[in-house]
UniProtKB/TrEMBL annotation:
Protein's recorded name: DDE_3 domain-containing protein
Record's keyword terms, sorted: Signal
Annotated signal sequence range: 1-21
Gene source species: Trichonephila clavipes (Golden silk orbweaver)
InterPro entries given in the database record: RNaseH_sf, Tc1-like_DDE_dom
Gene: AVEN_97978_1
């Protein structure tokens, strides 16, 4: 994934959930080696991570489907369809909320 961003010369800040597995020396060395800036935040603070709101909205939409997926391919297709239906305003609001989330 990181190679993709580097090839596109995209500037970004990497955000993880600060789980202990993401704090290993191997992970830190990899991110440092690639010059990837990390967002520093409180340990185990999923409420700070805006993607949690998006997963919640996606889950609610997915649960409302009439026909549940029966295999991996239909699951992927169903999730992609529901993702495409998410309102752009929801995603914009979630991105804009990051300022408030990290102010403290």
């Amino acid at each position: 994934m990181f190679v993709f961003f580097v090839l596109l010369s995209v500037i970004f800040v990497f955000m993880d959930d600060n789980a202990t597995c993401h704090q290993t020396l191997a992970v830190q060395d990899c991110l440092d080696c690639e010059g990837i800036q990390r967002l520093v935040w409180s340990a185990r603070s999923p409420e700070l991570n805006p993607i949690e709101n998006v997963w919640n909205a996606l889950g609610r939409q997915f649960a409302g489907r009439n026909y549940p997926p029966t295999n991996k391919n239909t699951l992927f297709r169903a999730l992609t369809e529901e993702w495409d239906k998410l309102p752009e305003q929801l995603l914009d609001n979630v991105v804009q909320s990051m300022v408030r989330r990290v102010e403290c």
